[in-house]
Amino acid sequence: MLPTRSRVRRAEGGLKTALEMGYSRVHAQGDSKLVAKQVQGNWKTRNERMAKHCNEACQLMDQFESADIGYVPRGHNSEADAEANKGVNLPAGKVCKGPLYGGGGGR
């Protein structure tokens, strides 16, 4: 299991990639209720470094026409986790064209 800060950084990377690919709408899901609630602004972020990453994720989300983040329990999130790991394993500077998994995407 990834540390919470790593989960937020992974979300930041996904948001940056979606922006670079021209998406205007995103729905992110993660298996950390803490991260989802903090990025949504529903829970306070007490750790200074974590707050920095949550603020960066929020600033990225503000650049989309529509963006949200939700919580999915780890046992129900295996497909999204596998796709996120594909993105993490891409060589530096490379992006995956098209939807990463069976969804349509919103460009």
UniProtKB/TrEMBL annotation:
It holds the Pfam family RVT_3. Residues 14-86 form the RNase H type-1 domain. InterPro entries: RNaseH-like_sf, RNaseH_domain, RNaseH_sf. This is Carbonic anhydrase 2. GO terms for molecular function: nucleic acid binding; RNA-DNA hybrid ribonuclease activity. PANTHER family: POLYNUCLEOTIDYL TRANSFERASE, RIBONUCLEASE H-LIKE SUPERFAMILY PROTEIN, RIBONUCLEASE HI. It comes from the Eukaryota.
